[in-house]
Amino acid sequence: MSRAKPGQVRAGLLALSVHILFFIFLAFGVSWQRKPPQIMEVAVWQSLPARPASTPAAEPEPPPLKKNPPKAAEPAPAPRPDIALKAKQEAEQRQREEQTKQQAQRKKAEEEKRKQEEKQRIAAQQAREAAARKDLEDAARRQQEARQATQSRIENDYKARIQAKIHRFTIIPPDLTGNPQAEYQVTLLPGGDVLSAKLVKSSGSPAYDAAVERAIYKAQPLPLPPDPALFPRFRELVLQFRPQS
Amino acid sequence: MEVTQDLSIVSMIVNASVLVQLVMALLLAVSFMSWWGIFFKLFSIRATRLHAEAFEKDFWSGSDLTQLYERAPGSQDPAGSLARIFESGFREYLKLRRQPSLDVSIVMDGTRRAMRATFQREMDRLESHLSFLASVGSVSPYVGLFGTVWGIMNAFRGLANVGQATLAHVAPGIAEALVATAMGLFAAIPAVVAYNRYAYDINRLAIRFESFMEEFSNILQRQVRPS
Predict the structure, then answer these.
(1) Which residues of chain B does A19 touch, with a Cβ-Cβ cutoff of 8 Å?
(2) Bridge-partner residues for A199, per DSSP?
(3) CB contact under 8 A, A14 and B7
(4) Residues B17 and B151: beta-carbon distance below 8 Å
(5) Which of B28, B32, B35 to mutate against chain A (most A CBs within 10 Å)?
(6) Are A136 and A170 spatial neighbours (Cβ–Cβ below 8 Å)?
(7) Residue of A219, A218, A217, A209 lying closest to A241 (CA atoms)
(8) Residue B4, in any domain of the structure
(9) Do the Cβ atoms of B43 and A27 come within 8 Å?
(10) Is residue B3 part of a domain?
(11) Can you tell me the distance from the alpha carbon of B123 to that of B115, in angstroms, rounded to the nearest whole number?
(12) What pLDDT score was predicted for residue A49?
């Protein structure tokens, strides 16, 4: 019995699509591992330091010299047989002379102006470059300061954490009175293990001193910043402890 | 100690041992076939039901039986089961009635036998892929479990070579192995659900066909007498 079954192809396609969907769901929908968030240190700047390479951009060009002298040398109008002719001619002559003089003067003035502008321009550029350099130095210094600030912040933070952790492990002797302070010098190993803990200043109560020392060893590994470059600051710590902080 | 291991599904499948991979491939093929069967049965059972409904409507609307037989609606269609049952019964009835010497009960017996034969054939056609679904539903979890057990065995054997055993050494191997069980269950659950559903549907269709056969026999018997 070989009857045509129109549903076969359709069923095959549907089955295929079910599997593809399931696979896509598995491959992209399920991630069984959480990635710890990457710690990133970012310095936020209000404004970027000016880049010195791009200073002479868009320098306004000095205005082009006016090369067309006013049309003063126009041919004199045809002399008319007049009495005033001569006077007029004279006047014209004078006018012409004046004009040429004026022209020369103007030229000179322009020349001077141009020179001055050039000078100004150079001065401005130098000033700008100097400012840019200063900006850059400023930026570097500020960055340095910021880094130091974050570093010391981290340092303080972790010192506080170390103290808190030790404090948590301290069993305060019941007969302790007041709030005496014990000072310990703690030498750490990379990884947070305690190499040694030395009593620098006793609290006056040997029971409390001993309790703190026990707590220091019990609290290892002590929390250290993840950045190994900061470890030298933690190698030798002088920590103060009080029963009630 | 490597802690950061890629635990995505793809890498787990790729890194699994050969036997586990074989089990996974087998399960994938079985799952594909069972889904194909699920969809194919879904279409064919639905088409059969719709055809039966249409044919019954036609049949009970009072049209002449010989006309209905000549038209034979849907008897060429693979889904026209009820039409084919009617056709075979009526054909047998017409043949037997042409012989005048035969008794009514003999005519009716022959007609019923012909209809029953066609009914059996149609039921066989409807149930054709169901047994496959049933066996997928019952066996594929075990196949997946086998792959898992094998994978876990390997994971623990690898653990024996490590001096200090941590969870990080075993966990990836076990996760890899469990993928096989997951695939087995993925193949099995739809197959079981579909099997139960289709068995119920086919049962209802069979009851419907049988009651139609009885009613049709009654109608034929009433027709035999006057001639």
Answers:
(1) 28, 31-32, 35
(2) A184
(3) no
(4) yes
(5) B35
(6) no
(7) A209
(8) no
(9) no
(10) no
(11) 12
(12) 58
CB contact under 8 A, A27 and B9: yes
Read off the pLDDT of residues B21-76 as tens digits, 9 standing for 90 and up. Answer: 899 999 999 999 999 999 999 999 999 999 899 888 888 887 788 888 877 655 67
Question: What residues make up the domain containing B191?
Answer: 9-224
Domain assignment of residue B71, yes or no: yes
Overall number of domains in chain B:
1
Judged on CB neighbours under 10 Å (0-12, 13-18, 19+), B121 is middle
| Residue B78 near chain A (CB below 8 Å) | yes
Dist. CA A241–CA A203, nearest whole Å: 9
Q: Does B35 touch chain A (CB under 8 A)?
A: yes
Which residue in B7, B35, B44 is closest to A15 by CB distance?
A: B35
Residue pLDDT tens, chain B, 227 long: 334 455 677 777 887 888 888 999 999 999 999 999 999 999 999 999 998 998 888 888 877 888 888 776 556 777 788 888 998 998 898 888 888 777 888 889 999 999 999 999 999 999 988 999 999 999 999 999 999 999 888 888 877 777 777 777 778 788 888 888 998 999 999 999 999 999 999 999 999 999 999 999 998 888 876 55
Chain B residue numbers with beta carbons less than 8 Å from the beta carbon of A27 are: 8-10
Distance from CA of B201 to the nearest CA of A (A): 18
Give me the domains of chain A, ranges plus CATH numbers: 83-245 (3.30.1150.10)
The reply to whether B2 falls in a domain is no
Q: Please give the distance of CA A203 from its chain centroid, rounded to a whole number.
A: 47
Structure tokens at B212: 């139609």
* B182, closest residue in chain A (CA to CA): A26
